[in-house]
Amino acid sequence: MQAGANGSADDADSRWMTYTELAQARRIATSSAIKLVLRRGWRRQKDNHGIMRALVPPAWSEPATSRIFDTDGHVSQAISALEASVAVLRERAEAAEHAAQTERERADRAQQALNAERSRANLLRDRIDALRDDLAEAEAAMEAARYAAWEAAQSAEAMREAEAEWQALGWLARIRRAWRGG
After folding, report:
1. Using H for helix, E for strand and C for coil, what is the string for 24-68?
2. Does residue 72 surpass a pLDDT of 70?
3. What is the 8-class DSSP label of residue 12?
4. How many angstroms separate the CA atoms of 94 and 74, rounded?
5. Where along the chain do its domains lie?
6. What is the dihedral of CA 64, 62, 28, 57, to 10 degrees?
7. 12 or 118: whose pLDDT is higher?
8. How many Å apart are CA 54 and CA 18, to the nearest integer?
9. Residue 168: exposed, middle, or buried by beta-carbon count in 10 A (0-12, 13-18, 19+)?
């Protein structure tokens, strides 16, 4: 027999349950239990403490078959598999973090080496500039020395010619010239 709108047919096997008890038994929310009682039209009444109770048929006072939780342990197996996957992923993440840290350290060392090479290049550039300045000064001094040597050679040539001229003059002509101041 089935319970009618008032639940009168199988009242002997039915149970009086609060909405909370029904929700726990069916593994649903309390609001869903209230809606279930109203939708099925089951008898309701308040007890002496003012708590609403419903007369629930025996088929509805047990957990729904679709709501039975992990009877074969499938969920436990899935959780174990997920935990193993998480552990593997955690190890991979730690390895990736370690590799990233190693690469960061390598990049820092490379940056330090680059900075040292730049400093060395700047020092060498400054030294080259100083050597170029010294070379320019030496070339200018060499040009001045060449000019002085050319002047000295011209002067020596003029003196040789004057000496040759002086020697070409006779003894008497030299005395006369010296006397005149020539």
Report:
1. HHHCCCHHHHHHHHHHHCCCEEECCCCCEEEEECHHHCCCCHHHC
2. no
3. T
4. 30
5. 15-67, 72-153
6. 100
7. 118
8. 6
9. exposed
Q: Tokens at residue 114, please?
A: 């680059």
Q: State the residue for tokens 């598999």.
A: 81
| Residue with tokens 């047990």, as numbered in its chain | 62
Helices 19-26 and 30-40 pack at an angle, to 10 degrees, of 100
Placement of tokens 């209230």 in the chain? 34
| Token pair listed for 103 | 């690469």
- Give dist(CA 58, CA 74) in Å, integer: 28
Compute the distance between CA of residue 60 and CA of residue 65 in angstroms, rounded to an integer: 11
pLDDT tens sequence across 108-149: 999 999 999 999 999 999 999 999 999 999 999 999 999 999
Provide the 8-state DSSP code for 17. E
Alpha-carbon gap, residue 159 to 62, rounded angstroms: 141
